[in-house]
Amino acid sequence: MAEEILRIDNVSKEYRMDGITFRALCNVSLRIAKGEFLAIMGPSGSGKSTLMHIIGCLDRPTEGKVYIENRDISDAGDQELAKIRNTYIGFVFQQFNLLRRTSTVDNVELPLVYSRTAPGVRKSKAKSILEKVGLGDKLRNFPSQLSGGQQQRVAIARALVTDPKIILADEPTGNLDSKSGHEIMEILNQLHREGHTIVLVTHDANVARYAKRTVRMIDGTIVSKAGKT
Ligand SMILES: Nc1ncnc2c1ncn2[C@@H]1O[C@H](COP(=O)(O)OP(=O)(O)OP(=O)(O)O)[C@@H](O)[C@H]1O
Ligand SMILES: [Mg+2]
To answer: Mind telling me which InterPro entries this protein's record contains (predicted)?
Structure first.
């Protein structure tokens, strides 16, 4: 295997509700190589988003270890975890998660505001990434003035603006028609060719086909590690 960027070892995640413990992940292990394009498939409730949140440093496992570039981040504090997330991870969600009263370019700039980048640099970076995803003419539009596919391209631009090494996309085409979905996948494919590591969750075999490897989850475990789907 090529150089590893991400590894999880025997990770379990338990959610406690009303005194009952639910095991959303059971002893999941996974290695992801630098530059890999991986798809995660599996039925609703099988733990895909839970796994993505742990990979993306949005949540911690109940048990097990998480390594990014061989660094054990399982016991990182909140601040440290946020810093790792800002450095390594770009997240794209099914629901776009854009700020509604904020323009395209300002939505994309936002992660750079948090990382205290100078305003001039922020603006030019956001613009150039929006041009790259084909939205150079929509900088001042609000999300409601964009199509679903365009909104998702804004979300991808926002995920990219910090130059993350790993792009996590949880059902990025789930709310899109198939043409817009394929446009989004072409952008992710291009990012893969440029060397980004991409982890994609999808229900759609046509979408998973863009990935070079697919793993399947059922009931909180990874059941198969196939090559090409
Ligand atoms: N915060 C939470 N508290 C309690 N249970 C949770 C929580 N988050 C997820 N779960 C449970 O964990 C299981 C896995 O959820 P998860 O969101 O990872 O599934 P998924 O594979 O992403 O499903 P989908 O394809 O529908 O998005 C589900 O049974 C869910 O109800
Ligand atoms: Mg999910």
So the answer is: AAA+_ATPase, ABC_transporter-like_ATP-bd, ABC_transporter-like_CS, ABC_transpr_LolD-like, MacB-like_ATP-bd, P-loop_NTPase
